[in-house]
Amino acid sequence: MAADSLGNIYFLDGNGTFDTTLKSNGFPINGDFGNAFLKLSSTNGLRVDDYFALYNTVQESNQDEDLGSGGAIVLPDLRDKNGVVHHLAVGAGKDSNIYVVNRDNMGKYDPDGVNDNVYQEIMGALAGGVWAMPAYFNNALFYGAVNDNLKAFTISNAKLSTSPTSQSVTAFTYPGTTPAVSGTGLEGIVWAVENTSPAVLHAYSATNLAQELYNSNQAGSRDHFGPGNKFITPIIANGKVFVGTQTGVAIFGLLQ
């Protein structure tokens, strides 16, 4: 899940019932929001404040091709070329598409079933489904889908690039990878864990994912930290990288 500064919560939910008959306000008539991108308000208790659903949400649910495998991320305020500020969130699931929603008007559902009312949709942006969430750094979004390279999509005029602007040489096996970024200013490092045996921690230049700065296989077995595991997300703090393992935590730091 992700949250904005107003306390609204954003997430993608799994396959399930979606009421294609809508009330006058555009909400499902029975309050069933299966396979949708949801915004919850935390004012006066949790409630659905807005949503976006695919035009083919029922078919995706029936095929277990839902959005709920992926996580949402809230982007910082972005300005387009006319200076208009956009409040956006991003998510992707099993269908290999990236969905960018306007947090102030997410788009709801098209009852005619022919279009997606969404701020931006990048069809086939990823080679596989997403069982992870992206990372953001310096006007770029980083996605690690299943059996796909780690990909960077740059942001310009409050829109994502429709194709990756850089990508890693390595492709990540199931369940893909949830990257994390360290750094300040224009310089950053994108960290990602590969679910292999042994597991591999990779470090890439945030400005060009084709430039690998380090991986934990480079020094033979010195930096190995055991077999892989699903959904490992590196955490960076105090100049060290913390990586969860099947039995504990591996801590990476600079050589003395």
Question: How many domains make up the 3D coordinates?
Answer: 2
Alpha-carbon distance between the termini?
Answer: 38 Å
The overall average pLDDT, rounded, is 96
| Share of β-strand residues | 35-45%
General shape: globular
Main sheet summary: 5 strands, antiparallel
- Give a count of the beta strands, DSSP E runs of length 2 or more: 22
Description:
The chain is mostly beta strands and 256 residues long. The chain is 2% helix and 39% strand. Strands 11, 12, 13, 14 and 15 form a 5-stranded antiparallel sheet that branches. Strand 21 (240-244) and strand 22 form a beta hairpin. 40% of the residues are buried. The mean pLDDT is 96.
In terms of topology, how is this protein built?
Layout lengths: L1 E2 L5 E4 L23 E6 L5 E7 L3 H6 L10 E2 L3 E2 L5 E2 L1 E5 L5 E5 L17 E3 L12 E2 L3 E4 L4 E9 L2 E2 L5 E7 L7 E5 L2 E8 L5 E6 L2 E8 L19 E3 L2 E5 L4 E4 L4
Antiparallel strand pairs: 1-2, 2-3, 3-4, 5-8, 6-7, 8-9, 9-10, 11-12, 12-13, 13-14, 13-15, 16-17, 17-18, 18-19, 20-21, 21-22
